[in-house]
Amino acid sequence: MQIVFIGPPGAGKGTQSVRLAEYLGVPHLSTGEMLRGACRQKSEIGIKATEAMESGQLVSDDLVEEIVFSRLEKPDCESGCILDGFPRTVPQAEALDHWLAKRGQLLSGALELRVSKELLVERLSSRGREDDDQGTVLERLRQYDKLTHPLLDYYGNRQVLQVIEGSGTQDEVFSRVQGVVAEMNSSSSEQAEK
Ligand code: AMP
């Protein structure tokens, strides 16, 4: 199963995607974490990504695609993975579809964690990550609206989008995630039987 999580910073994507990966027994791939790792190691990709990340901008599609597709090639991703923070633009989504199609695979689903702006700001101001200062957070929210929000139509048109209400406790949200994934599983086995 290949599942992508979409949601603005503060929606709970990180927590929920880690839990889902553990639950399904597949790797959790966070492009934010991979990029932060590359920045710490001062690798070529890390050096190129640092400025964009520090200012709350998105890193260029080609750099992110390079890092994520080389990770997806690893054997532990063969039976699926949970993608957290990728794709974040329509060209990245097209690149992922293309990558999967070349391997005879399809995306199982795109899960949107939907949270009100008020709750996002409240969560982000109590999180305290290094790229969470107020200006950077606002820029990341703007980038989400401008570049990532169009993905919802992209996946909606392909009928793989599932919207999950992201308010409430982590356990409450996770039981919604489990419900949606169970439905995805049963509809994909019905399709296979046809
Ligand atoms: P995250 O941990 O997912 O919130 O990502 C932290 C930062 O990494 C973002 O603000 C972007 O600068 C960068 N980043 C992560 N994933 C992507 C992506 N798919 N495309 C472009 N930039 C990304």
Explain what you see.
The chain is an alpha/beta fold and 194 residues long. The chain has a single domain, classed as P-loop containing nucleotide triphosphate hydrolases (Rossmann fold, 3-Layer(aba) Sandwich). Helix content is 59%, strand content 12%. Strands 2-3-1-4-5 form a five-stranded parallel sheet, sandwiched between helices. α1 packs across α9. The protein is globular, with a radius of gyration of 16 Å. The chain binds adenosine monophosphate. Adenosine monophosphate binds next to α2 and α3.
CATH class category name: Alpha Beta
The side-by-side strand order for the widest beta sheet comes to: 2-3-1-4-5
CATH H level: which superfamily?
P-loop containing nucleotide triphosphate hydrolases
What is the alpha-carbon Rg in Å? 16 Å
Provide the number of structural domains: 1
Briefly note the structural class of the backbone: alpha/beta
Which helices and strands occur, and which strands form pairs?
Elements lengths: L1 E5 L6 H12 L3 E3 H11 L2 H11 L6 H12 L8 E4 L5 H13 L6 E6 L2 H9 L8 H15 L1 H8 L3 E5 L4 H24 L1
Parallel strand pairs: 1-3, 1-4, 2-3, 4-5
Bound molecules: adenosine monophosphate.
The site of adenosine monophosphate has 16 residues, from helix 2 and helix 3.
Write a compact overview of the structure shown.
With 194 residues, this protein is an alpha/beta fold. The chain is 59% helix and 12% strand.
List keywords for this structure.
five-stranded parallel β-sheet; binds adenosine monophosphate; 12% strand; Rossmann fold; globular; alpha/beta; 194 residues
